[in-house]
Each structure stands twice: as structure tokens, then as C-alpha cells.
Amino acid sequence: MNKKILIVDDEQEYIIAIRDFFREFDYAVAVTMFPKHALEIIAGEKPAIVLFDFKLPDMNGDRFLERAKALSPDTAYILITAYKDEVVLDKIRKMGVTDIVMKPINLAQLLETVQTLLKTQQKPS
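and the corresponding C-alpha cells:
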């Protein structure tokens, strides 16, 4: 099972905390604060799940999602955001984001979401 997770957010302490949490459950976790670096990781490693914020340096979440999905369409993308603009969130949903999680994050619920997605990904079609 591919247990690779990529976390993309501009708050370093935040991504380190989530990284450390998922590592406790034996996930391979990469983190970056830069969307262009994240796209390189996605192209090369094809993580199972990408957790990303909407407000990123040099690129908003909708543009990031569009480019990331082109590189790895089978990856699950979860938007993690405090951004509550329903027009933007609806646009992201229509673009095919797998899930949207609002900040502050409940780590136990996020873990459950990730585990469910991974089980779904490994089922034969």
C-alpha cells in the first residue's frame, strides 16, 4: 500500500506537527512550503495523498490543484484551509478535490479520512 503523504502549507510549524503525527502511524510524509517544489515531488513520487492549503506562496490552491492533478490524477487531494469563501470552496469541489478539511484540524478525524481514502485506493476496480 502506498502510504506516502505530501503536506503543502506556508506555516512551517503546522506542517511539521502534522508530519510528526502521521509518522507515528508509519506514514511516509514529505513536507514543503512551496507549491512549485510540491509539484516536483508529486511528479516524481506520486504520493497517495496530498494535503494542501489554499493560500500558498506564488500560487493559490485552485491553480495548484489543477497542475497537481495533471501530474498525478490518481492521487487524493485534500484541501486544508481556514479560508471560508464558499464560492472558492465550491470551485475547488468542482475541480475534483477529494475532501475539504477546515482549520483548526481535528487530527483524529484527519487520520480517519486518510485511512479511509487509502483503503478505497487499494480496492480493485
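(Above: one complete record from the training split.) The mean pLDDT is 93.
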